[in-house]
Amino acid sequence: MLRLLFLSTPVGALGTGQGGGVELTVQNVAQELQQRGNRIEVVAPVGSKLQGISVTEIPGNLQVAVQTQSRDVPIILPDNSVLANIWGYARQVQSNYDLIVNFAFDWLPFYLTPWFDCPIAHFISMGSLTDALDRIMAQIAQQYPGTIGVYTKSQANTFSFADQCEILGSGIDLSLYQFCPQPENSLVWLGRIAPEKALEDAVAAAKITGIPLKIFGKIQDQDYWNRICQDFQDAPIEYGGFLSTQHLQQAMSKSRALLMTPRWVEAFGNVAIEALACGVPVIAYARGGPTEIIQDGMTGFLVEPDSVSGLVKAINSLAQINRFNCRQQAESEYSLTALGDRFRHWFTKILKS
Ligand code: HBI
C-alpha cells in the first residue's frame, strides 16, 4: 500500500476539459491505484472534480498553456500562481506520503524537486515544447534517473533524455464505453479546439466526402474556431460541446470513424483509445502517439501527415475495417488494469532506487 500525492496540471480545473488528455490520465490512474488499496490525494485548482476521488482544491491564478508559447519563452508564473500554491501545499504535507506524482508540464515542479524530502515522479503529458522546460527536465532526468514518465516512445524521442523515460502508455475504464457494431453515416473529431489539433483538416475532409462531422471538445481558442466556421460555411459540421465520458461515448460510438489531425507530435491521443473502445476505427496523421496505437488497416489508418486527400482516401476505405477488432485492441492493450500495473511498477522502481 502506498500513500500517493498527485499534483495536477495548473492550466484548468480537472473535469472541465481545459487540462486536455492529462485530466483523463489523472482520473484513471488515481481511480485504479485507489481501487488497489493505495491512499491517493489529488491536489488541483479550485473547481476540480474527479469520479470517486477526493480532490484538495487550491486557489490561485491558472498557468498559461505552454503550447501557446514560443520555444524561447521565459519561465512565467502569474501573480498568486495556482501552480506555486499547489507546490506550497505539497511541501507542507509531503511527510504524510511515500511519493509525490507531478502531472504539470511546467518548469517549477522540476526546479523544486531537489528541495523536497519526499521522492517525486514526473509524468510529462506532451512532447518537447520550450527550451527552458527541455533543460530543466533533462537535469532532473540525469539527477534522478527513472523518475520521468511519458505516454509513448515517439513523445520521449522529442527529448534529449528519451532513453531515461519510463513508457507508460495510457488506459481507460472500458466499462464506460459501449461497443457499437452498426454506425450511422457520420465522422467524429474529439479534442481541445486549438491550432495544434488542426481541426480544419478534418472539416475539409468532411466537406469533400459529404459525410457529416460531429465535433466534441473544449473550445480553447475561440478565434481559431470562428475562423474555421468562417472558412468552411458549407461544410457538414456540428459542434456538440465538451461532454462527460458517459455522454461522449454515446455520441461518438455511432460514428464510422474518428479523425485525428494533430499538427504537433501528439504525445498519446487518449481520444484514439476511447474511440477504439467503442468499436470506432481511427484515421490519424502518422505523427506521434497514434503511430504506436493504430494498427494500420486493422483498427484504422495512418495517413501521411497534413494530407487531407490522405484522410479522404482512408475514409473511403473504411469498409475493410472490422469494428470488433477495434474494441478487441482496446481491451487487450488499454484497460485500466494494464495501466495500473505499469504505473505501480514505475513507482516501485523509483522507491527502490
Ligand atoms: N500547459 N503550462 C502548462 N502546463 C500543463 O500542465 C499543461 C499545459 N498545456 C496542456 C496540458 N498541460 C495538457 O492539456 C496536456 O494533457 C496536453
From TrEMBL:
Residues 183-322 form the Glycosyl transferase family domain. This is Glycosyl transferase group 1. Pfam families: Glycos_transf_1. Keywords: Transferase. The keyword Transferase applies. It comes from Stanieria cyanosphaera (strain ATCC 29371 / PCC 7437). The lineage of its organism: Bacteria, Bacillati, Cyanobacteriota, Cyanophyceae, Pleurocapsales. It comes from the Bacteria. GO terms for molecular function: glycosyltransferase activity.
